[in-house]
Write a structure and sequence with these properties.
Distance between the termini: 22 Å
Largest sheet: 6 strands, mixed
CATH class of the largest domain: Alpha Beta
Shape: globular
CATH superfamily of the largest domain: Alpha-D-Glucose-1,6-Bisphosphate, subunit A, domain 3
């Protein structure tokens, strides 16, 4: 079974994960000789970070600890090293943790790099360095400051806005509020202190952001900004206290940076195609968006809140995205910008399942009469008035279902058909 999912290695933070991360450090240290390491605010991050650093050092690699940092901050620091390693489980619950391995350009390790590390771990082919080859660890200072200093010149105009920022007690707590204040904003901090005990689920979905929605309305803020556990994701609440969907936010950000083409995932709205962009679609996961952007492009992202700006790095940068949204809201009310974008009903959900045979599930779905079928990621059926996507999650034991259509009745029909196919497949395999 592969160790890497669509966003690094993740698991429940226990002794097994500590041992695995130590082995990852040994393997990485044999290939990359100068590595910067950061971590999010989870209670287990220090233990895993030290295990990983121990592996690096034992392998004869040099290691630098950047402290608590958002993932995009660590990715920017990685430009000065052979590789970067971020201890995080991103938007997963607080009891999870893991590790993202990053290249100097900010992109995640590609499939070849992942396979190389996996084979070394599974084959136990990483003997420790001799005693006189073991390096010492160091401290990498100023990662947050360097990230903020890189962003500020892109926004020369003072942004006189009132903004509520909900960092969910995650790693963005040490970055986004300070950046926005430097840009001239009046920041109302909500859950902006680093703590491994998240006040709500770390994924910045509408269901998890009730506090932010209420606060934005109550104080009459120009917008609200939310991050996940490691700050690579960013989502928004407008000046009317409405959660802005990731599909609409993707269009707004692309327009803000002047992109003519959007690189996005197969589960993004068909509205994006209708807005005049040239759209390139990848498998779900910011790793695949970044890989495609290496071939060119100014902007990419996915509806879950990952936004990639290649002029900064190929890592999704929720901190930079927060500044971009503030800039657009300083010129025109965000609610008006959101209202200008068309909308089709779209449903996203999932079913927990560890044992579904994908081939059998696909066979059932193909009994539906569709115009076309895509196997870029799972199975996507396109219809004249909408589409249905069923795919296995790359980060959790779940089957994800996404449907979009030109009417509420039709989107519920498509979504229910997807859920029904999964349940029937699960029943048949008992």
């Amino acid at each position: 079974m592969p160790l890497f999912g669509t966003s690094g290695i993740r698991g429940v933070a226990d002794g097994n994960l500590v041992q695995l991360v130590l082995k990852v450090g040994l393997a990485v240290g044999k290939v990359y000789r100068n590595v910067v390491v950061g971590g999010d605010t989870r209670t287990s991050s220090d233990a895993l970070k030290h295990a990983f650093i121990s592996g690096l050092l034992a392998a004869g690699s040099k290691s630098y600890d950047a402290g608590v940092t958002p993932t995009p901050t660590l990715a920017l620091a990685a430009k000065e090293f052979d590789a970067g390693a971020m201890i995080t489980a991103s938007h997963n619950p607080a009891e999870y943790n893991g590790i993202k391995l990053l290249n100097p350009d900010g992109s995640a390790f590609n499939s070849y790099q992942q396979k190389q590390i996996e084979e070394m771990i599974l084959g136990a082919s990483f003997p420790a360095a001799r005693w006189d080859e073991i390096k010492s660890s160091g401290i990498y200072n100023g990662a947050i400051e360097k990230h903020i200093e890189r962003i500020i010149p892109d926004f020369p105009t003072r942004l006189r806005l009132k903004i509520v920022v909900d960092c969910g007690c995650g790693a963005a707590s040490v970055a986004t509020p300070y950046l926005l204040k430097k840009l001239g904003c009046n920041v109302k901090a909500l859950h902006c202190y680093p703590s491994g005990f998240f006040p709500h689920d770390a994924e910045p979905t509408e269901a998890n952001l009730g506090d932010l929605i209420r606060a934005t309305r109550e104080i009459g803020a120009d917008l609200g900004i939310a991050h996940d556990g490691d700050g690579d994701r960013m989502m928004v609440v407008d000046d009317r206290g409405r959660f802005v969907s990731g599909d609409k936010l993707m269009i707004l950000l692309a327009q803000e940076v002047g992109a003519k083409e959007i690189v996005t995932t197969i589960d993004a709205s068909m509205v994006i195609d209708e807005m005049g962009f040239k759209v390139t679609r990848t498998r779900v996961g910011d790793t695949y968006v970044s890989e495609e952007l290496k071939r060119g492009g100014r902007f990419g992202g996915e509806p879950s809140g990952s936004w990639v700006f290649p002029n900064i790095s190929l890592c999704p940068d929720g901190i930079y995205a927060a500044a971009q949204v503030a800039a657009m809201a300083s010129r025109r009310k965000l609610s008006l910008l959101v209202n200008d974008i068309p909308y089709y009903p779209l449903l996203r959900g999932s079913i927990t399942s560890k044992g579904v045979v994908v081939s059998e599930l696909e066979r059932q779905l193909l009994t539906m009469e569709s115009l076309s079928v895509s196997n870029v990621d799972g199975i996507k059926l396109d219809f004249e008035d909408g589409w249905l996507l069923v795919r296995a999650s790359g980060t959790e034991p779940k089957i994800r279902v996404t449907a979009e259509a030109k009417s509420e009745a039709r989107v519920h029909q498509l979504y229910d058909d997807g859920i029904r196919a999964i349940k029937e497949c699960m029943e048949s395999q008992k």
